[in-house]
From TrEMBL:
Source species: Pontivivens marinum
InterPro entries per the UniProt record, alphabetical: Flavodoxin_fold, Flavoprotein-like_sf, FMN-dep_NADH:Q_OxRdtase_AzoR1, NADH:quinone_OxRdtase_FMN_depd
Biological role: Quinone reductase that provides resistance to thiol-specific stress caused by electrophilic quinones.
Family as reported in the entry's similarity comment: Belongs to the azoreductase type 1 family.
Binding-site residues for FMN, renumbered to this chain: 12, 18-20
EC number(s) given by UniProt: 1.6.5.-, 1.7.1.17
SUPFAM superfamilies to which the protein is assigned, alphabetical: Flavoproteins (SSF52218)
Subunit architecture: Homodimer.
Protein name: FMN dependent NADH:quinone oxidoreductase
Cofactor note: Binds 1 FMN per subunit.
HAMAP family per the UniProt record, alphabetical: Azoreductase_type1
Transmembrane feature ranges: none
Length: 195
């Protein structure tokens, strides 16, 4: 059996003492495959008008500047296309996802590349992959009524064709303390045992 290719996307602004970073790294390592790390908090790019113009220009018609503008996005898309398993570490900031993770979504959600419009509606082109989202929060209950991060990310992944999405949560750490992390570690252990 071939070892899976794993894409680990980290988005916490904290490089030390980050719960989402530590737990998502532990989860990615349990699958025993090659792990590609994409730290969007350290290397994320926001789209702008030039990016949008380049994106709407057919690839074969892009000039050198437009090709350069899309190069980072092309790399991010290729990482997703190549991965069998995507593990995303996501802290909840002010009820939403970090801006760096939203910027990554904007770079990889591309019509005719990762999804396409059809007469029956949009169809994701990244089917057959599994995703695991490790969510950490201080006070926001994951998938509660004030969590706008997790449902958004799950929807986007599904829109791209990744519908097998598992949420691991270490939420409400300000109130639950270490128990929140312990519960998430138990979820990871159960996934590892099943794998």
């Amino acid at each position: 059996m071939t070892a899976p290719k794993i894409l680990l996307v980290q988005s916490s602004a904290r490089t030390d003492a980050s719960t989402s970073r530590r737990l998502s790294r532990e989860l990615a390592e349990t699958f025993g495959g090659d792990v590609t790390l994409r730290d969007v908090a350290q290397s994320g790019e926001f789209i702008d008008g030039n990016w949008v113009a380049a994106n709407f220009t057919p690839a074969e018609n892009r000039n050198a500047d437009q090709q350069g503008r899309m190069a980072s996005s092309d790399t991010l898309v290729a990482e997703l296309q190549d991965a069998d398993i995507i593990v995303i570490g996501m802290p909840v900031y002010n009820f939403g996802m970090p801006a760096s993770l939203k910027a990554w979504i904007d770079q990889i959600a591309r019509a005719r590349v990762t999804f396409e419009y059809t007469d029956k509606g949009p169809v994701g082109l990244l089917q057959g992959k599994r995703a695991y989202v490790v969510v950490a929060s201080g006070g926001t209950p994951v998938l509660g009524e004030i969590d706008f991060a997790t449902p958004h990310l799950r929807f986007v992944l599904g829109f791209l064709g990744i519908t097998d999405v598992t949420i691991i949560n270490a939420d409400q750490q300000a109130a639950r303390g270490e128990q929140a992390v312990t519960d998430a570690e138990a979820q990871i252990a159960a996934i590892a045992a099943a794998a």
